[in-house]
Amino acid sequence: MTRLTSLIGILTIASVSAFSQHFTPKRQPAKLQDAGDANLVAKAFATAAMTAFLWVAPVPLTHQLPGSPYIANAVEKASGTGSRVNKDADSLLRLGLPIKNKEVRGLQESLETIKYDVGSKRKAAALDGVKKSKSYLTGKTADKMKASCRSPSVCASLLTEIESSLDPLQASIKQSQDAFTGSEQERTALDKAYGAQQKATDFLTDLEEQMIPENYETPVPSDYLDLPRLKKRATVEMVVKKAEAGAQFDVNGVNFPEARMTMVIDGYAAPITGGNFVDLVNKGFYTNMAIQRSDGFVVQTGDPDGKAVGYVGTPSKAIGAGPNGERLIPTEIFVRGDKGPFYESTIEDEGRGGEATILPFSAYGAMGWAREEYDVNSGSSQFFWLLFDSDLTPAGKNVLDGRYPCFGYVVEGSDFLSDIKEGDVIVSAKVTKGLENLVDPKA
Predict the structure, then answer these.
(1) Three-state SS at 426
(2) From CA 186, how far away is CA 48, in angstroms rounded?
(3) β pairing state of 233-241 and 259-266
(4) Closest CA to 431 of 270, 256, 286, 326
């Protein structure tokens, strides 16, 4: 079984220096002078460890925590260059849609920032956000949004639905202002505000999807058309159970008999990677497969029993097969501003380090494709969920974007990743939506 097992790879001089001062070769901490030093060294070690892990053999990651959905600028140079990082999977998926309409992006930022303001109890700011959002829904701004839609009448209805959602949102925020801080009344009002905001952004997603050009497909070089590919998006649901019979998942002190997660797989940003994953899910490849790594950085699976370290199937002519007959796929990276992904290379190999990818590894539950450190064409079936932590991948220093393909996010149930351990079993993996978007090269 090929897995990440050692701390090798690229370490900065500073990290190496920190290691030499505080850690033995066996990675055991020496005696530290105080708790502050302990915390500092622990973070230095964790950051360097993460960097090393990403450059060794196949890697995987995943998770999604509730938190600030602050909207990062869609044209920023890197996914984490701002003072805040967009950690909201639904927001990132909206930003990843192949559309060009600045008015709807402005509406998106306004609506999503309301969620951040409600979460931080910035109630006056949230009310200002509601007012700002309403300003996008009428007049010339609304007309420009409708003009970008495949069906202007459908978008007109969606704009009306968004506006209708804002009235209860506004009322709930005002109710929370009138309640005592920390009271049950405040909590109930804020929960209602969250629900109304979520309803509005669901309609926003439908609106933005209406702006994708008819019959749009992300361009894929002819060399890779003998591999499965995903034309749009698909939804996958997985159910994981504990290895020990009767054991339960503990999420924030609440026990659950199974971990149920919903993932959106993006064929706009990663048509080959996403297509390969959806194809394997549909084949039942991951069903009854154990989790093979869970180390606090990532949760990983996809290595079948036997000599092969990936799915054994008909290989691509361009990439070929692995040493044990594995169907291999190329590394696929889509940089924001490009017309399509580039293949068989990384963002650093292309001399474009620091540029933003369409889908960044900035959400808990971001899904990445694992491969060997020095072989960009060694991915097959192993993937990971990233347990994103801003301390490990701080703003402007994301070590994953452009090195590994991000092909989707966990949008429901990501909290379960915190208690999914090695040996736990995927008892079910199904494509619940979008299977018609999978292109089978044999068909």
Answers:
(1) strand
(2) 42
(3) antiparallel
(4) 286
Query: What span, in angstroms and rounded, lies between the C-alpha atoms of 16 and 161?
Result: 55
Residue 96's CB is within 10 A of a number of other CB atoms, namely 24
Residue stretches of the chain with pLDDT short of 70: 1-83, 390-397, 443
What whole-number distance in Å separates Cα of residue 316 and Cα of residue 123? Answer: 55
Nearest to 302 by CA among 396, 389, 380, 401: 380
pLDDT of residue 287: 98
- Specify the amino acid at residue 153: S
**Using CA atoms, how far apart are residues 375 and 355, in angstroms rounded to an integer?**
22
pLDDT for the residue numbered 119? 94
Residue 364 burial (CB count, 10 A): 25
Residues 23 and 45 sit within 8 Å (Cβ to Cβ): yes
Q: Which two tokens stand for residue 154?
A: 């459908």
pLDDT tens readout for residues 66-91: 333 322 333 343 344 445 789 999 99
Residue 335 pLDDT: 96
Q: Is the dihedral of CA 274, 275, 276, 281 positive or negative?
A: positive
Number of CB atoms found within 10 A of residue 260's CB? 15
Residue 144 one-letter amino acid: K
> How many whole angstroms separate alpha carbon 64 and alpha carbon 56?
24
Determine the Cα–Cα distance for residues 68 and 418; give it in Å rounded to an integer: 19
Length of the chain measured in residues: 443
Closest CA to 62 of 423, 414, 373, 435: 414
Q: What is the dihedral of CA 375, 379, 380, 381, to 10 degrees?
A: 140
Contacts of 81 (CB under 8 A, 6+ apart): 354, 356, 395, 396
pLDDT value at residue 397: 61
DSSP count for the chain of H helices, then E strands? 9, 15
Residue with tokens 């105080």: 34
Asked if residues 428 and 260 have their Cβ atoms less than 8 Å apart, the reply is: no
Angle between helix axes 102-119 and 184-209 (nearest 10 degrees) is 160
pLDDT at 6: 27
pLDDT for position 109: 97
CA–CA dist 367, 403 (Å, integer): 13
d(CA 127, CA 178): 13
